[in-house]
Description:
single chain; alpha+beta; D-Maltodextrin-Binding Protein, domain 2; four-stranded antiparallel sheet
Amino acid sequence: MRRFATAFSAVLLLAAPAAAEDAARHGLSIFGDLKYPADFTHFDYADPNAPKGGTLRLAAVGTYDNLNPFILKGVYAHFVGRTSGKLGGSVFDTLMVAAEDEPDSLYGLIAESVEMPDDRSSATFNIRPEARWHDGTPITAADVAFSFDALMTDGHPQYRIIYRDVEKVEALAERRVRFTFKPGATRDLPLQAATMPVVSKAYFSDKPFGETTLEPPMGSGPYRITDVQPGRSLTYSRVKDYWARDLPVNKGRWNFDTIKMDYYRDRTAELLAFFAGEYDFRQEFTSKSWATEYTNKKPVIEGLILRETLPDQTPSGVQAWFLNTRRDKFSDPRVRAALNYAFDFEWTNENLFFGQYARMNSMFENSPLAHRGTPTAAEAALLEPFRGQVPDGVFGDAFVAPATDGSGNIRKSLRAAFRLLKEAGWTVTDGRLTNGAGEQLSLEFLIYQPTFERVLGPYVKNLERLGIDASIRLVDVAQYQNRQEEYDFDAIGLRLPVRLTPGVELRNFWGSQGADSPGSRNLAGVKNPVVDALIEKIIDASSRPELTTAVHALDRVLMWNHYVVTNWYRDVHPIAYWNRFSRPALKPKYALGMLDTWWFDERKAALTDQGKPVPTD
């Protein structure tokens, strides 16, 4: 649910031999040929013979008061499908859709083809004549143009960052729409155009686009929302006459008749409900639970619940405590580095995580994009013009987070932290770490799940040993989201997704423009001209080696500036599920694939519901 579509490149290539300028293309790829030809019948990781039917029951912690996923206001629902969160879900189709077994390829969905001139100054999409909204009316170029205008005017602020270099969107004909890009526009813009959410102009003709709603907006995807129980559940039903059900990009996918999302007040209640059979599937993110809370449960012992760890070949994403540098007390990188020394990951991993994790030392961990060793010649050439504007460590060995022996005795690390704090002008008076004005350094961690208290507790004690007034603030989901979007926090724990081909979204994560834009993902408030320049190098890269070099350089600058206290990662998906499902033999390389490629197995479900284990075939 969490993966955002991959980016296009400056060089957009066909699976077939090079086409003439403006020739219609069935798909677009970055840095190489498409895997699937124009006449492909289905993605390799989908079973075209998968049966339709049954119900998939899922769970989420929290609540919601908004079904419009494209705006900043409200607490949005957990949308199920090919994109997550505020970018919509399986309710809303896009012009093109990503293949989950390629790092950076898209194929036609609403659009049957796309045309681009050699200078990449525009992208023209040809809409399929059969494309329909859920009410049976056609999807038109006017809908696409309206969607762009609505997102830019009343949508989430992130869209104004993503689409800032789109000059205009024009409906050239009923089924032909053109995105025109500003001179020097980024490599990512064709991608952003192709995966832009498309909404119904007619539906919003008498409804404000920018307001929260509990009325499900008109969609066009494989599912529609059919039951809304705020605070309790949200139900999606498969659209039986879905216009795109037989397209190659959908064949064998979206197989459940019903997907129901139940909401729970906290993770403990959610987990207990799983073992009680209240829902079917969970991906376990809590290591203690994975190690201790499954093996002694009767449904697991009897084989009714299965546990697996599936390989995760995508970048792990940035999981960290983001330090809010908008606040003066965190503006000095030496203070931020000191906070890193106070976190004893080795003890935490051994005693709380059962040794299941590794420490993050990169913003692009679990991928070739993570910087390693000393800078290559190409990286050094890219970084050299910024010497004096970046920490000296950028030009040396790779960043490695401070490590301990795991014993819990971190006096050596705390001494290193105190030296950094002293250099930054902080001194200890009567056990309180204060600045020249006598103000004590305080640090409040904002969380919404109690499970993080056990991890943060020892960290808070270490910070207190430095004389810092450290605390944990547990709030409800709505308050957490509001404070996050308004940057009303000292430190906040979150995971930012990372793409296999990073691009324009980095402006939203780390760029100066995002620092002051409400609701952006630049949680740390980074305003660094070197970071901005390297982001543009990434966006403008014309080959994968060039891209990788620029990402490595950015990674070094971000890590050595200590904008975050890094957390942990692992390269697998730990999953548990009631044995009511089957799936294709091949998992998509870059996704979990459960929502869109698994199916309800009546034989297995019947045995499981009778309390009988399913025989191994």
